[in-house]
Structures are given as C-alpha cells and as structure tokens.
Amino acid sequence: MTKEETTDAKRTMAMAIDRKSLARAAVILGGLAAGYFLVVALHRAEILINDYYLQILIWVGINVIMGVSLNLINGFTGQFSLGHAGFMAIGAYVAASMTKLMGMPFALALLAGGIAAAAGGLVVGIPTLRLAGDYLAIATLGFGEIIRVIILNLDVVGGPRGLPGIPAHTTFLWVYAIAAATVVVVRNLIWSRQGRALVAIREDETAAETMGVDTTRNKIMAFVVGAFFAGVAGGLYAHKITFIDPSQFDFMKSVEALVIIVLGGLGSITGTVMAAFVVTFLPEVLRAFADYRMIIYSLMLILMMLYRPRGLMGTAEFSFRQLGLADRRPVPDKGGQAVGRSDGPPPVLETRRVCMDFGGLRAVSDFNMTLRQGELVGLIGPNGAGKTTVFNMLTGLAEATSGRVYFMGEDITKRRPSEINDMGVARTFQNIRLFSNLSVLDNVRIAFRGERPYSMAEALLRAGRYSPQEDQIYRKSMEFLRLFGLEDRASEIASKLPYGAQRRLEMARALATRPKLLLLDEPAAGMNPQETQELLELIRWIHERFDLTVLLIEHDMNLVMKLCQRIIVLDYGLTIADGSPAEIVKNRRVIEAYLGEEAV
Questions:
Q1: Residue 152 burial (CB < 10 Å; 0-12/13-18/19+)?
Q2: pTM metric for this prediction
Q3: Is residue 523 part of a domain?
Q4: What is the CA radius of gyration of the chain?
C-alpha cells in the first residue's frame, strides 16, 4: 500500500468514526429529550404520572447523581468510601447559602457547591488515599463526621437549628438534565484511558503501578470528580426540601448511596440508575405494608444475595453495540511492523552495593550488577536467595535500605513504580497478576500511553484527540495480541484463559508499555516441558524482535542455560557468581549452593 493510499484509508476510517460519534450523540440527545417530554406530557395529562409521582422522580434523579458519583469511587476505582454524605453536605450548604444569603443564581450556586465539594474531595484524598480497605473506609467515615460537626458549630448557616427558607429552585428539568449529564460524563470517563487506569487500580493496584499508572493521582482524581457530583446532588437536595440541618447528612445518608451501588452492581452505571429507581420507589410501593416492610426488605436482600450477588447488573452496561452504533475498528494488517523501540541511546541498568533489610533479616547484601544494551541475563539461586526482592527494588515496589540503583544514568532508587515504568522498565510477576475481570484486549490497552495523551477534558467530552488516539490504542493493542497469538481471544475475560495464554498476555501487556528493560520473574513456573520450550522460543523472539535488555529469574536450569548469555547467582542475598553459562555450571560455590553435583 502506497503512502497516499495509507493516508486516504486513515482519513476514511476517521470519517467513519466521526459519523458513528455523531450518530451516538444524536441518539443520546434525542433519547434524553424524548424521555423528558414524555414525562412532562404524561404529567400534564395526568396519565400514570401525577404531582406525587413527579416528586418521586425528582428524588430518583438526585439518587442517580449520588449513586453514579459514588460508584466512580467505590465500584470503578475499588476504593471503599463511607464519607459521601460529607461531600453532599458541603454542596448543600454552599449552594443554599449562595441563593438564600447572597441571592446568587441557582446555576452558579450548584456549580459553587460542586466545586466546594470537589475541594473537599481533594483535601480528604491527598492524605488518606495511600490507605486501602478498612482503613480508607474509616478515614472517609471520619471525614463525613468532621464535616457534620463543623456545620453544627457554624452559626452563619444555623448550626444545629438548620437552615430554613431555602428557595425551592429544584425542578424536574434541573434534576433530569444534571442526572443525565452525570451519567454521560462518568461513562465517558470510564471508557477513556483515565477510566481504564481507575479500573486497573481496582483489579490489581500493584500491577497497575508497574504498568505506569500513577495510582495515587488517579484515585484522587476519582475522588474529586465523584465529590463534585455529590456536591451538586446536595445543592439540588437543599433546594428541593428547602430546609437542611446536619442530621440529614449523617452516616446513614452515606449508607443509602452505598446501598444503591451495591444493589445495582459495583462498576455498573446502568445498574446504579436501575437501583436508584428501586430504592426510591420501593418505600412508596410498600407504604401500605409498613408493619411488614423490614421483613420484606430482608427477604429481598436474601434473594439478591442468593441469585444476584453482584447486584442487578453486575458490571454489565447498556452498550451502543446493541443499537449497531459501536465503532467497528479494523483489525490491523497481518504484516505489521515491529512495535518495539529501536531508537535512542542504549539503556543501562546498574546497582551499586544495594542492600535490603527486613527487620533484622538481610535479604540482599552488597548487590552489584550491570546490564548492557541487548543482554539477556539470568538471575538464579535457591528459594529465599533474594531474587524477587531484587526485582522489587529495581521496579520501585521496595526501596533499598542502602545503595543505589541507576537506570540509563538516572538514580531510580526512590522512584515510584509508575515513574520507573515510564522511564522504560517493565516486569512480569512470579504469580501472574493480570487484571483478571477485564478482557484480554483491555489488559493490553491499559498499558498503552500516547506520546501526547489526550486530556481529561477531551475524555469527558469525547473531543479533540480522544477518537484518533483511542483508535490508535485499539490498533496497537490488537497488533500485540496478534504477535502473541491472542488476537482471536481479545474479547475473553483474562482469568478464563489457559495458564500458558495468561503468561503470554502478561508479557504482551508488559511490552505494550514500550520498555527498554524487561524483567521476567519465573515465567516458566507451572509449565509442562512443551510449554517451557515454547516459552524459551518466545523469550528469545521477544529479545531479538524488540531489541530489549532482559533480566530473567528462573529455576528451570535447562531453560536458563539455553537462553541466557550471562548468569548471576545469589545465595542468601549474596552474589556468589557472575559469568557465562559454561562458567556457572562449573563453579564449585554454585554447585554446592544451588545446582548440586549432578549438574556437573
């Protein structure tokens, strides 16, 4: 294909994607407008929807905003937050103060409330998001209580007496429009490279870090966006009920939002919307059975746990694919070019007198190593020799107690895993660490980052560089899957792959970060002889095709001796040998410590 033909093909493909995008936008706007006017028409005609049900629909919309914003944090990012009511309280009080006390327009008040809540998300995010699990839940719960106590002591907003006389600005149109905007914005975020980073954090934070994902920054981003929409929901709530006091934003309000996302499905926007309807309408439906309401709730909960333990929708979503409006991205040409790096100065890794202590135990002692461009080096030794600890220090998962690690002349001893990966160091793990609940394709797409990646605003609006770069990421990801024999399994869930295919996928994902140095931690573990032979050929091919420096930990000495150009031997954290395979197999200290006499 000539250069002109290639350019014309790319232009045609871009135009097709743009037409799909315009068609999707038209469907979204048309559907939203039709839904709104249908509700309004039914209300005016008093068919199915009277004033009472219209008020319930307004509360449904507010719950949708609350649920979707919390699902971004809890469901998609995997952070267990119990302080969402605190963000809602900030938005409610700021918006109400601006309209009641300052006479500001409602739209500006809602925006100010959202921004103030986002600032609260930033404040709570920076110090607490290095926590995880129960510790994070306790920290966010404490934040919500702190906000409530602060409001209790602010006389300017009524303190414990509350703030009455708030203008009743919240209408069905306001709630409908903002709920729709929340769903669209969060959905666009999740279907972007930033969203894939959030889901990667949920699946395996350590693996995400080694793929170049700045986990702390991305978690803070999720908290800020989620808090913003919670603040807007609080503003709508205040201007609907027209009276607020601190007791309305207690722990149970956070639990209410949590119930919505658990019922709908952690990681499903569609499920959250459905659950918001259920949670809002169900008390009204059961009003005639008030004496038995808790029994009915309990039975429903038991049935949910038995038959839908992951919620109404699990992680499933409504997709434009069901309407034939999904992007039909072409599979790359079978004769693609090599996708590794071939330019730039030769990468060099050096360790100088590196030590690693765990309490009183020294796992690695005075470790010195130099890796030069294009070398394929083995790191061997008995179990407990410190091999994986060395890998962890090289990739930032552990910080050396003393000594220095240099990559291409730069000191990376105290660098974070994401920074080290950005510089060009990638790794696999002894125990495979895929993003198990994501597709094979998404596992690789998470690793790709463009030269000038599109911004958060472009992701939310699906504008600018978003479509071209997403198309490029798709094509490159499919090319990698083809190279590793996984192209036909791109849509499968990673955890469903056979063991050997999972190993290949982990290598493909590591190479998708375009490394200069690849660290392989026991890639043959658990493989039979045939799979091991295939792995040997694969590693040799990767080394040559991508012009990489490779450091390999492996216990299969047949593989190591056939594959490696040089071998380093550790024993109890000490380097006891460094040389060619022929030298190592005859080294008396290595034989005594690891190989045994039968290796001679």
A1: middle
A2: 0.82
A3: yes
A4: 28
Task: Please tell me the least confidently modeled range out of 17-21, 99-103, 356-360.
Answer: 17-21
Helix (H, G, I), strand (E, B) or coil at 183: helix
**CA nearest neighbour of 170 among 233, 117, 88, 118:** 233
CA atoms within 13 A on the CB side of 502: 21
pLDDT digits (tens, 9 = 90+) for 200-210: 999 999 999 99
- Position 290 in a domain: no
Burial of residue 355 (number of CB atoms within 10 Å: 0-12, 13-18, 19+): middle
Tokens of 267: 């990681």
Spatial CA neighbour of 258 closest among 413, 84, 383, 120: 84
Tokens coding 414? 């105290």
**pLDDT (average), residues 317-326:** 54
Single-letter code of the amino acid located at 260: I
For residue 208, the enclosing domain spans 29-251
| 219/352 same-domain check | no
Query: Do residues 429 and 505 make contact, with C-beta atoms less than 8 angstroms apart?
Result: no
Band (181; pLDDT cuts 50, 70, 90): very high
On whether both 103 and 228 belong to a single domain, the answer is yes
Domain boundary among 200, 234, 251: 251
The enclosing domain of 583 has a CATH number of 3.40.50.300
What mean pLDDT, rounded, does the chain reach? 85
Count of helices and strands (H, E) across the chain: 22, 10
Contact 443, 490 (CB under 8 A): no
DSSP string, 72-87: IIIIIS------HHHH
Claim to verify: residue 358 and residue 247 sit in the same structural domain: no
Judged against a pLDDT cut of 90, whether residue 10 lies above it is answered with no
The amino acid occupying position 526 is G
Mention every residue, 6+ apart, whose C-beta is less than 8 A from residue 482: 331, 332, 334, 336
Per-residue pLDDT tens digits for 504-562: 999 999 999 999 999 999 998 888 888 888 889 989 998 988 889 999 999 888 899 99
Is the pLDDT at 485 greater than 80? The verdict is yes
Count: domains in the chain: 2
Band (389; pLDDT cuts 50, 70, 90): very high
Element (H, E) at 533: helix 529-545
Q: How many other C-beta atoms lie within 10 A of the C-beta of residue 414?
A: 11
Same domain flag for 241 and 359: no
Task: Tell me, yes or no, whether 33 and 179 share the same domain.
Answer: yes
Pairing of strands 566-571, 402-407: unpaired
Amino acid letter at 163?
L
Q: Are the CB atoms for 229 and 65 separated by under 8 Å?
A: yes
Among residues 251, 269, 290, which one ends one of the domains? Answer: 251
Indicate if 189 and 61 belong to the same structural domain: yes
The conformation of residue 120, written as its DSSP 8-state character, comes to: H
CA distance 81 to 87: 11
Same domain for 373 and 230 = no
Q: How many CA atoms lie within 13 A of 453 on its CB side?
A: 12
What average pLDDT does range 131-160 have in this prediction? 86
Cα separation of 168 and 106, whole Å?
10
In this structure, is residue 79 part of a structural domain? yes
Does residue 340 register a pLDDT over 50?
no
Regarding whether 356 and 230 lie in a shared domain, the answer is no
In a domain, 313, yes or no: no
User: In this structure, what DSSP letter does residue 229 have?
Assistant: H
